[in-house]
Write a structure and sequence with these properties.
By secondary structure, this protein is of the alpha/beta class. Helices cover about 35% and strands about 10% of the residues. The chain is globular, with a radius of gyration of 25 Å.
Amino acid sequence: MARWGPATTKTLRLGEADARTFARHLKLLSLDQKVGQMVQAEIASVTPAEAGSYGLGSILNGGGSSPGADKHASVSDWVELADTFHDASTRANDGNGVPILWGTDAVHGHSNVYGATVFPHNIGLGAARNPDLIAAIGAATAREVAATGIDWTFAPTLAVPRDDRWGRTYEGYAEHPAIVAEYASRMVASLQGEPGTEGFLGPGRVIATAKHFIGEGATVGGRDQGDADCSEETLLALHSPGHRAALAAGVQTVMAAYNSWCGEKVHGHHYLLTEVLKGALGFDGFVVSDWNGYQQVAEDHGEACARTVNAGVDMLMVGEDWRRTYRDLLQQVRSGVVAETRIDDAVSRILLVKARAGLFHKGRPSSRPDAGEVSVVGQSEHRALARQAVRESLVLLKNDGVLPLRRDMRVLVAGDGAHNVGKQCGGWTLTWQGTDNDNADFPNATSIFDGIQSAVAKSGSAVLAPDGRFGDAKPDAAIVVFGEDPYAEGDGDRAHLSHCRANAKPLAILRRLQAFGVPTVSVFLTGRPMWINPELNASDAFVVAWLPGSEGAGVADVLFQARAGEQEPDFHGRLSFSWPGHALQTPLNVGDTNYDPLFPYGFGLRYGEKAPPLEHLEESDTAADMPEDAARPRTNPTYPR
């Protein structure tokens, strides 16, 4: 254990009034009510009256869940529901009920909410290499979350993905822990405020979560929720720096990871959760499970509850079957399998975080100065920040002199990602998987085509032709926008990294344009590095746009020459993940023995740089028997739809 020390957390003291309220509530709670505080239910499966009656400690809106099951629910709808849950919880226990805590997956902006600003996913932010940008994004996200009456975000994700076949690769900032650690402290501080200052968890701030503790990026084969079969030294050196930085910044909650470490599920791992996290690292907030993660600890439901809580998880994110979990955990305490002292410890931690967040004196969400401000959600300043993030995250892999484009060109815009805001946002956007959305679901957002059209509006033209076909008038240039369709968690796991094996249409478009001699720019939408040698060969320029979010116009800001009087654009992004030279070249990480990527960690061209030309790249898939994605079984539980 000594190797994990010394403790990195800051002691955060309560004010006198909050300290008294905290002590009073802890004393008033019965055993049944204490167990209730340890249960978190999904809003689609619990009524406010039930939450108050059971004394539930928390609710969440899982991926794709919203007030009235309406993904177009307004800000006022969110605040009204928050009020209803707050009222039910505080009126319980003869008016001495504990205020309920609402958590949400605001992982790239408040992305579950209609009209909110959707920032680039973390993989793009890692390429931007700008900690100040991260701080600004965290503050903007916190303001939008608080405006809907919600107290807590399950962010930031601090994974260090080491195998890009993993479906959550895009949730990681980088394959190397240095960027993750640097960003972790800035994101946590901007979401919550600076510990020890008046603004800590004050107006416009929300509780942050360091997730997922620990080792999820190290699973064998990049399998979601798989086994991190690595040494403790590797866990400490590669996968703990982001968490340690978050703890030092005062993060109030930690979410346990789905994965196992050397065969033992982290949700049931007493050494990691209690001895390391709460002991050696001194974490005094509370540990929340991931969605039904405790159910993977044992086959028997009651035993799973007991082992998870005894390991150090303080709050069980149950989702739908919360009544059974409540009953089973209560029974495990009454039978002595879980000691009441462990329950007291868990509830003390939960109430302490609630007190630090001001829940005991803030009142109804609608009465708070930061809630109900409709104009805050998706406001122009936040969208301008997101557009800046898009510009800074773009990585230029190839440029044979075609970029930047002139604004007086006739531009053909092709590919199924060109005018598809849902695709450019990716997973965890309005719905869990980010699917079943169209452009109408994103008011005020801009597609990549919107940005291109605006860029050439005065002196050129842009024609949208998803199939890349044109008539008699040959375009001066073409921009083809393509890439991965949205996914989340294990649904995004892959058996290989070949893009064209899964979708050959973009390559056919590129080759057709190449045959006509049309200068062509590829804009690649992706949640991970992929093998794109054929597409590179068929492009005059190749730009990785990652998953840029709602402000697709930021792409055109960099692709086109400046307007008169404006500063010339340039690329800023540098790879925070190594780029593979063949479809099975994974794991591939900087520092590996015999490290030989197609593009190394840190690569990214600038307009002013003269890069050696790429010769024709090998286009073989490298393995005739390359496994199909269908062979990788889905392992993750399903969020409510």
